[in-house]
Design brief:
The chain is an alpha+beta fold. Helix content is 15%, strand content 56%. The protein is built from two helices and eleven strands, in the order E-E-H-H-E-E-E-E-E-E-E-E-E. Strands 3-4-5-6-7-9-10-11 form an eight-stranded antiparallel β-barrel. Helix 1 runs antiparallel to helix 2. The longest helix is centred in the N-terminal third of the chain and has 15 residues. The two termini are 24 Å apart.
C-alpha cells in the first residue's frame, strides 16, 4: 500500500489530521465550528480509504405509463440516489401529462423523496413522499401530496447499470390527482 510517510498508511494519516483539527478547535479564538466541520468533511472526502461515497451514488430516471378507460398518463422523472448497505434514499423531480378522452388534458410537476429497502437481492420495498402541482379543470393550479408505497425488482444490465420496475399504491391519493392506482413505473439507473 502506498504510504504518506514510512510506517503510516493513508487512513492513519487522515485520522491524525482530523484529531489535530478537533484538538486545535478547542482552544479559544481558533477555527470556527463551521470551518472545522467543512475541513473535516473535505479531508474525509479526499481520503478514498476512509470513506467511499462515489461508488454509492447513482443517477438515472424513470418512465411511467398508465392506460385506462379515461385516457392515458405519462410520467418522466430523472433521479439521484444514494445507497448505504440495503437502504437507498434519493430525490426525483418529475413532470407528467394526463390525456383525458372527455375533458382537457393536464400537466403536473413536482418532486419525490424516496427510500428503498432491499431485503432480497434485487427485490426491494419502495416508499416515497410526493409533492405535486396539479392543473385543475378550472385552469387553476393546486399543490397536493402523495404517499406511494409498493415494491419492485432490479435487473443487472452491466456491473454498474440496472433496469428496474415497480408497482406502487398511493395511500393518500387525492381525488383531483391525475394518477390512478396502481402506479406502474420502470427505469434505468447508473452507479458511479
Amino acid at each position: 500500500m502506498h504510504s504518506i510517510r514510512p510506517g503510516i498508511d493513508k487512513a492513519s494519516f487522515f485520522a491524525r489530521i482530523i484529531i489535530y483539527l478537533t484538538k486545535a478547535s478547542i482552544a479559544p479564538n481558533n477555527i470556527t465550528m463551521k470551518k472545522r466541520f467543512l475541513l473535516v468533511i473535505a479531508v474525509l472526502l479526499m481520503s478514498g480509504s476512509v470513506i467511499e461515497i462515489k461508488s454509492q451514488v447513482y443517477t438515472g430516471g424513470s418512465l411511467g405509463i398508465h392506460f385506462d378507460t379515461d385516457g392515458y398518463y405519462v410520467d418522466i422523472a430523472p433521479l439521484l440516489g444514494y445507497r448505504h448497505g440495503i437502504l437507498d434514499v434519493g430525490l426525483s423531480p418529475f413532470f407528467s401529462y394526463r390525456d383525458h378522452k372527455d375533458r382537457d388534458s393536464r400537466y403536473t410537476y413536482g418532486n419525490r423523496v424516496f427510500t428503498q429497502l432491499t431485503f432480497i437481492p434485487n427485490v426491494f420495498a419502495h416508499g416515497e413522499f410526493e409533492v405535486s402541482n396539479i392543473e385543475l379543470a378550472s385552469g387553476d393550479r393546486k399543490w397536493i401530496v402523495g404517499l406511494p408505497v409498493g415494491g419492485g425488482y432490479r435487473y443487472n444490465l452491466t456491473d454498474r447499470t440496472q433496469a428496474y420496475g415497480m408497482v406502487l399504491y398511493d395511500v393518500l391519493l387525492d381525488e383531483e390527482s391525475s394518477v390512478t392506482n396502481p402506479i406502474i413505473r420502470g427505469g434505468v439507473i447508473y452507479r458511479f
